[in-house]
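Escalation from tier 1.

The customer reports that the assembly of two entities below gives different structure tokens on two consecutive runs. Tier 1 could not reproduce it. I'm attaching the input and our single run for tier 2 to review.
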Amino acid sequence: MGTGNVSRRDFVKASAASVAALGLAGRIYAAGSDTIRVGLIGCGGQGTRDLISCVKSTSGVEIVAMGDLFEDRLKESIDKLGKEVPNALKVTADRRFVGFGAYKKVLATDVHMVLLVTPPHWRAQHFQAAVEAGKHVFMEKPGGVDPKGIRSLIKTAELAQQKGLSVVAGTQRRHSKKYQEIIRRIHDGQIGEIVAAQAYWNGGDMLGYWKWWDKENLSDMEWQCRSWPWFTWTSGDHIVEQHVHNLDVINWALQGHPTQCMGMGGRAVRNLGNIYDHFAVEYEYANGVRVASYCRQINGSTDRIAERVVGTKGVADVDRGVIEGEKPFKYTGPDPDHYVQEMADLIQSIREGKPINEGKNVAESTMNAVMGRMSAYTGRALKWDWVMNASKQDLTPPKYDWIDLPVEPVAIPGKTPLV
Amino acid sequence: MKQTAAGAASLAAVSAFSPRAHAAGSDTVRLGLIGCGGRGTYDTTNCLKSSPGVELVAMADMFQDRLDTSRRTLMQRLPDKVKVTDGMCFVGWDAHQKLLATDVDMVILTQPPHFRPAHLKAAIEAGKHVFMEKPVAVDPVGVRSIIKSSELADQKGLTIVAGTQMRRISHLVEAARRVHDGAIGEILGGQCVRLGDAMRSWGPQKREPGWSDMEWQLRRWLFLTWLSGDFIVEMHVHNLDVMNWLIGAHPVQCMGMGGRQQRIEPEYGDSFDHFAVEYEYPNGLRIEYMGSQIDGMHYRQDQRLVGTKGLLYTDSGRVVIEGQNKGEIAWDQNDPCLKQHADQIEAIRRDQRLNEGRRVAESTLTCIMGRMSAYTGRALKWDWAMNASKLDLTPPLQGFGDLPMPPVAIPGKTQLI
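Tier 1 run:
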């Protein structure tokens, strides 16, 4: 492949040529067939759900390779897939890989496409390896946990573009018909000039969703990798891991990223890991528009998950599909499951040979969240250009092995250094 | 008071106000100070300086040492205007009552905010004009009391000025005029941000051996919610009062968050060190407030509004308006802390109505509901906080003795009352 915009017929021909030239590994997908061979890297709850959505999104998806850090997680995932999508599950015993190097082994198989769903810490390096191996990519949000990872992500997204590979990110609101229609109307000027916006993810403490493992006999590394949502180096903290969804919608609506931010936060209740349980960040965008961002994971507090955009002629409650003002509108059309739709869009783009590439979008939304976290952790106002170009923050541990790894202390604004 | 015949006649005819607006037979306004801390001493200094013919004649405080220090300072600063005899000095829990029983015309109420509602009520019932510091309460029960006492003050022809002096800063006065005249059109959004240091040098740094729990808490009142309201109320009422003023309304609901992440030592009581509250005003207008008292954090203090025709930015030195009605207004350097007293003394002498009680009560409740929302994690409606909330932070003990430090609020667990 290597080029975009080829017709379906050309694509099949090119694939056939690739087969001749390179053998199996060089094929984008099976010549003369609609089959998409998929590999899963990161077999946790989200990875398994994403894979099920992928299989359900279209016909002809085969699961042929899987990799995870832990054998038990891999097995649980296979068991679940066996129940939910038995016909698509074609992972032979020699295509089940575990350990820190599992992703390389998945990428060395003849998969056309991989789902990158390990904890966010690994996203950038896995994305790079996948694109270098010529695979189409679905990657879960967020796209990283630190500026170093995000810079890598952007570079890899460019490489994917050059190679004609499709990249879809798990910011699934971008694949919602409802969101798409509201954003289209915002871009069309139907709420006038944008002057303010708000993004919220205020919800519960996630204990029912994010597994917490007792330390007991586990090595530090294993304990933290298994309990990854609760540590900043693995998840990026919840502003990055979860609230990125809402910040992504704001970037989408405002057609850009912030230029600076001022954040605050802390942990008022939480006592697991080293992440915060609330953040509030003021973001400023290029034309001076200020956006308020709130995210909280505290049980018993008021929930609100929403995105709202205010213009001189109206207000868009994007999540509700409603515009009020001079040109009121309410979206009443179909809005198929976003998790299935994102996979359908990805596979359609592969089959039609019309690559889509959301790498830069998710890199920027992730950076929104990362800079908000860095500002809240340190108490310092931050500029986008500094974070993107000059920050040296790199949360990578000394090595990927079952090592001792002391838990970083919880950040204290005014004391935690800005790196 | 020496009034002209005409003045006296008009007073009697028009208003039938309290005949003892101030001491009959003299132009002198006799002042009493209730709460002799740093702010009380500062306000008294300003009040005495603001206008001729004002004398301090009585002082009251919870503590003898605080009263003595304040009295000495004021005597040194303004020996001609400070005429406080030993017999007009009162200390203890009922000091304010004793002072209010004297023949002062006006009192300055500057004890910690917890005491304000009770002190205002007593002062108005005693027929005194009142200057009271912000905030004016720490809970909805107190806010309701302030409003009731303010209404009584109106009936009795008494003046009330509240120490929200930003309302008298020249550039903000002009900004409010222009915004109300439509300079930025309909208001669509805004921010109110005040980030500052942790106030660690404030108050006694260590507990003296003889101090009871109550005395320790009273002397560290800034960091105890039942006494100060927490800093969103105690300090940032200034900034949120400006937002209410510019917008021309109080919020209808809010959702707040906050906690303590750096200032966590026990001597900082149960105060948070950061708050972020989204206030919703009428017509769906959402305003973002962020406040902190954290050392080493970015410093900021500004208010901003964006409207259909432009935006307004203001800090302590200037106002900038951008858009269709561009302009920049600088502070004229006049001291609003002097002006607020001059205005009041003039109103007393001219028998003019001047009552800021309800307005400052509303600004105080704006802050209180933000704190309550952050403490509990619950979104709140103004009407509920104003009319239905039963929160009353008065401790069981009214006197010196044992009083455990209250626990720090835990959102999601701390009860909404």
